[in-house]
Amino acid sequence: MTSIKRMLQLAAMGGALAAGVTVLPATAAHAANNCDGTYTTYTYEVFCYTSDWDEFRAKVRCYKIGSSSYTTRYGAWTRVGTARSVAKCTTSEEPASGSWLFRNV
């Protein structure tokens, strides 16, 4: 990893911490998370039943049909155990991969 790239990553992390929000991807480090993700025609939907975190959101990488372009889209932040978070692709895209993110508020 180049030193410039590493400095940019640290600066971005510092900005998130300064804002008082911790945002992390779903990882093995937080194995107490109990979440399910489901693909539909244009969406990736996530429901978290329990978690060490306060909130979660869906994240989907959308593939533009007929090209090599991808766009990342996000669902709304949702309290754990209350509702689904839905990340939507447009009608000219389809979900290529989905995951979820967590934060404490």
TrEMBL record:
Top-level lineage group: Bacteria
Keyword Signal set for record: yes
Endpoints of the signal sequence: 1-31
Record keywords, A-Z: Signal
Protein name (Swiss-Prot/TrEMBL): Peptidase inhibitor family I36
Gene source species: Nonomuraea wenchangensis
